[in-house]
Amino acid sequence: HNPIAEDEIFCDFSEPPEYKTSPNSLKIVSVSRLDLDTKDFHSLLRAFSKFKAKKNEAKLFIIGDGPDKEKIANIIRDLKLEESVLLLGARQNPYPYIKYADLFIHSSFSEAMGRTIVEAMALGCPVVAFDCPVGPRELIGENENGLLVPMGNPTAMAEAMHRLLEDGKLRKRIVENGLKKAKEYLLSTNIRKREELFKELIGRRFQNNEL
Known about the structure:
The chain is α/β, with parallel strands linked by helices. It is 48% helix and 12% strand. The longest helix has 24 residues, at 187-210.
C-alpha cells in the first residue's frame, strides 16, 4: 500500500461553500470515480433515499468524475433526489468536504486498498462501507473503526448510517479508532518504521562484527 502524505490531506480546511448553504443539514460525502462497473451507485443512492426518508435534512455530496456521470444523474432523478444529492465533479482538494461531513460512505464492488477510507478516518469522519472482498474488509474492524454492510444491500447501509448518527458512544469509538488505524498508513509512520528497522539492522551488523 502506498503511504498517505499528511501535507496532502491536512491542508486547507476552510469549510466548502456548498456546505455553508445548509448549516443544519446532515452532510454525507462519498469520494468516488463515477463508474458503474466498479462502484455500486445503484445501492448507494437507494440507501441514501431510505436514510433521507427518516432524516429529511440530509444531503449527499458525491465528489469525483467518470464515464457514467449521466447514468448516475438519471438514477438520482429516478429516485427524486435532485434536491438532496449533489454531483460536485472532481475536486483538487476534496479533504474539507470529508472533514466537515457527518458521515463518509463507500460503495465499491472491488477495491485495491480503499485509500479514501483511510483519508476519511485520518480526518475524523466515520465510515460506512460495503463489505467488498478487498480494501474495506482489510481496513475496517466491524464496530471498531467503521461499519461494514453486505454488498448490494441498501437497507443495511441506511440502517448503519442511522446507527452511526444516533449512537453517540459508537460514533465516538469509531472515530477514535479510525484515527489510530489511519496513522498506520501515514507517510511519517512508514518513514519512522523504516528508520527503526534500519537502525536495528545496523545494530545487528555491529554486534556480528564484534563477535
